[in-house]
């Protein structure tokens, strides 16, 4: 055949390779692509559809693995007869997701992407080799429900010296992501518990609360952080905050509001504060902001942290520090849950921390990210008449307030036309009621320093600035 006329929707959340895969699959099932029909080469189809060869290859390989196509060496891809297939079922409707797609962009500004080039593979490999040994065969068995004591000990020591968090290893619970730990917390409280969360904020919280049928109240944020006055008026029992660096604006919860928040929690039994210490490792000016937990005298703060930004997202190791009274309830009500984190990964990380490599890695990455942030903010000064920058003192992303007459949907689409992926603020708001010029979240960590100049220039050009 000459070519496949597939209408790809570049504004759709479904990746391009998946759209192409679904199109070809449908053509085969419905009999429009016949047995032994040769498909266009990857290069020709990529040129025709104006997509990358990697996108075409991903679609072809998926179809081959499912038996819809066969590949003949030096000849190409050919359609299998539908009657020769064991079973052809109804096409699944793809589930939309907000996760980072494996879609290829020239520049990807997602706030969760890190600089992988800075990862200390040699040191990590050394500790992995130590752990992956017959002498540690017991690690093949289930471990402690709270996670390995060795890693919890290292985390407790790190939190005390880096964040002022006062806790023992016995108070720490490990989980495969903040989401897993949040779900465990929800199970500790009554179904009538009302939750408050910053808006805009961490976008997975509403999904978790909706799944469990819990009431969620969005709390407004200003230059001093979350508005504590709203909490009491709304009758909230548990509030989720990012006091050291609000996501996504980067604001710091003021000392006055911290004290008010702690006093609010201490006024009644059943009130708690979940402190997500988001991006606290990456502050580039002034001293590190003390954790809210370090100020807590009444056991009202649940401290949460993760190694996703400080080490790697794929390791899926997060932790929470529970006050003593909640820790007792956790042991009595949830200790039947086995730890969701690989024991071997836990021991590798424990050795990595114990021998000082984690601290060295943080210091090195902090310098790299600071240079990137300084470079990107300096470049954006050239566009100050159209672009305002928020949150430029810490973290791995900034927020751009864009004033060029385009709305956020057009800004995202025009960036994608230039093969650049950016994320609108509305993706992280719950009520979507914010007013004013559109705002774009720009994660810069994953873009090589030498490419930042072209990345920003290309983005501004796509927006007509």
Automatic annotation (TrEMBL):
The keyword Oxidoreductase does not apply. This is PLP-dependent aminotransferase family protein. In the C-terminal section; belongs to the class-I pyridoxal-phosphate-dependent aminotransferase family. PANTHER family: HTH-TYPE TRANSCRIPTIONAL REGULATORY PROTEIN GABR. Residues 14-82 form the HTH gntR-type domain. Its cofactor is pyridoxal 5'-phosphate. Keywords: Aminotransferase, DNA-binding, Pyridoxal phosphate, Transcription, Transcription regulation, Transferase.
